[in-house]
Design goal:
This protein has 116 residues and is an all-beta fold. The protein contains no helices and 11 strands. The protein has strands at 2-4, 8-10, 16-22, 31-37, 44-50, 55-57, 65-70, 75-80, 89-96, 105-106, 110-114. Strands 2, 4, 5, 6, 9, 10 and 11 form a 7-stranded mixed beta sheet that branches. A 4-stranded antiparallel beta sheet has the order 1-3-8-7, with no helix packed on it.
Length: 116
């Protein structure tokens, strides 16, 4: 019910935009977020945004990544700039529909590789 766009291979310093579309059956999602999981590591929060537009970023991406959402389209975005090799990971979108602090839905995961 969450469909993420494809990731890809990007050179260090480059940019990439991810999107995540929620199906029409999921509406008024309180919090949507992006998470990532690097090989051998746990899944961590990258950024999240409330339905009112309040954002929260991991320290490692602050100033380089921008999360946004289009509530009318039920779509979440992640603009990633100044990418570094350490940003390489599988990225997941998540939806906390009722603001419980737990994601009710997850996207399928998309691989972002930052390498020259």
């Amino acid at each position: 019910q969450l469909q993420a766009s494809e990731g890809g291979l990007v050179q260090p310093g480059g940019s990439l935009r991810l999107s995540c579309a929620a199906s029409e059956s999921i509406f008024s999602i309180h919090v949507m977020g992006w998470y990532r999981q690097a090989p051998g590591k746990q899944r961590d929060l990258v950024a999240r945004i409330t339905i009112g537009g309040i954002t929260d970023y991991a320290a490692s991406v602050k100033g380089r990544f921008t999360i946004s959402r289009d509530n009318a389209k039920n779509t979440l975005y992640l603009q990633m700039d100044s990418l570094k090799s350490e940003d390489t990971a599988v990225y997941y979108c998540g939806a906390d529909q009722w603001g419980t602090g737990q994601n009710d839905y997850w996207g399928q995961g998309t691989l972002v590789t930052v390498s020259s």
